[in-house]
Amino acid sequence: MKSINILTYNINHNKTTVFFDLLKNIVQNYKVHIIVLQESSGIDITKTLNNFTEVAYLANKEQKWVRIFIKSKIGLDYKNTASYMFNKMICTIITLNGKTVFTLMGAHFYSLFGKSTTEQCMKNYEVPRLIQEYEIIAKSEKTVLVGDLNYRMHDIALHNHSFLNATNSKKIIRHFGKRDLGRGNSAKYFYNPMWNILGDYDHSTKSETVPGSFYWIADDAEKYYWNLIDGLLLRPEIMDNVPINKIKIITEVKDSGTGLTKPLLKDTLINNKDSFIDKTHSDHLPIVFTLKI
Amino acid sequence: MTKIWEFEDLEKRETVYKVILKFANSLRDDTNGVIEGIVTETTTENNPEIVYGFYLTVPKLRNYSYRLFEFRQSSIVEPYTVYATLYAKDPINNQFFESNTVPDFERKLLGWIKNPITKLVMQSIKVHMDIMDEYQKD
Fold it and tell me: How far is Cα A61 from Cα A41, in angstroms, rounded to an integer?
């Protein structure tokens, strides 16, 4: 069995040399094989990721909201790529030595920013059917949905059977198979492993950690400062292939040249409107996980 | 004895799908195998609507699939009205039509196949393929 490390990162349109170096170090530090970037449209990143192949799809360079890169010359490849929602969801089949191994869906769903919850739902309403449509093309339901999903795992939309029907329990999925909706209808589950890293205590290191991948000012009763809106969802067919202890929010990166460690978080705030995320890299933190195939 | 129970006219019920499939199947021959057509059929939970996705698939580009048309059929029982969308590369150029009869649906769909947007998408695929061919020669 082979381990594939997958990185998801909303890079907030950062195209500075400093950031490119940081990204290169993340890829090296975490031995990344597949990268799913959001907010990277129009950025020439080929020099930084020169040992990666970009998954090609037909769209204007400036409108490639989600981009996927696969490490070259290690047997990994892709096929049957399709883009949806004006390139906010890119689907492709990942192959290893010519054999289909899983379906990767890189996503950056519409956010809550400047919208009501209802508006966000209306913008994203097609997602479940498009996933279903691509699974028909892929002839497989070994689907890994990765990216800036713009939903926290406890958001009703993510849990709702009409949307992603994502649950936090493998046991529920194993027992029920599908979610019974009554009157003969049922909905296929996603397993949401991100519940396991919610909270600010890391059981593996027995220390305090970051409780989210995105920080904003909680100036409204419905808002949280820290939000775990980036991550992954897994179809039941592949939910046991991601070790939970291998899902990590990256908070620091070691420079391969100098050996120095650069934190992606700040210890203190300049003022209360400041962010704990060091925005010189992005307003999101990257997430890495391992998929056993 | 006169039958009491009768089937609905299946010919009518399947027409939408048949028309779409007819155009999809002609793609391979018309483009000398460069582009193929595939049609997906999906439904939504708690919704009688059926959605057909029409893709241009390019075998030489790792089966890259461009979602060109979408057709929404109101329900299994009553195929018409069909609501159709033509997806351009730029969302502002997307086009829409509604159709209530088979001949009208077929005529409008043929119009879209001859539409400059469709031709532009096909041309972009061809250009991309030529670039890949050139790149692979190096």
Answer: 6
Distance CA(A12)–CA(B45), nearest Å, equals: 35
Chain A closest CA to B2's CA: distance in Å? 34
With beta carbons less than 8 A apart as the criterion, state whether A55 and A102 touch. Answer: no
Q: How far is A218 from chain B (nearest CA, A)?
A: 34
From the list A81, A84, A185, the residue facing B62 with the nearest CB is: A81
Taking the C-alpha atoms of residue A27 and residue A29, their distance in angstroms, rounded to an integer, is 6
Examine the predicted complex and report whether its ipTM is higher than 0.90. no
Q: Where along chain B do its domains lie?
A: 13-137
- The reported pLDDT for the residue numbered B22 is 94
pLDDT for B138: 53
Distance CA A203, CA B17 (A): 54
Res. B13 pLDDT band, cuts 50 70 90: low
- For chain B positions 3-62, those within 8 Å of chain A (CB to CB) are 38, 40-42, 44-46, 51, 53, 55, 57, 61-62
- CB contacts < 8 A (A, B): 61
Task: Report pLDDT digits (tens) over A97-130.
Answer: 999 999 999 999 999 888 888 899 999 989 999 9
Question: CA angle A263-A268-A272, nearest 5°?
Answer: 130
- Chain B positions touching A129 (Cβ under 8 A) are 42, 44, 51
Q: Is the pLDDT of residue B44 over 80?
A: no
Q: Tell whether A187 is within 8 A of chain B (Cβ).
A: yes
Task: Compare A182 and B70 and report the one with higher pLDDT.
Answer: B70
Domains observed in chain A: 3-292 (3.60.10.10)
Q: Measured between alpha carbons, how far is B4 from A293 in angstroms, rounded to an integer?
A: 57
Residues A259, A136: Cα–Cα separation, whole Å:
47
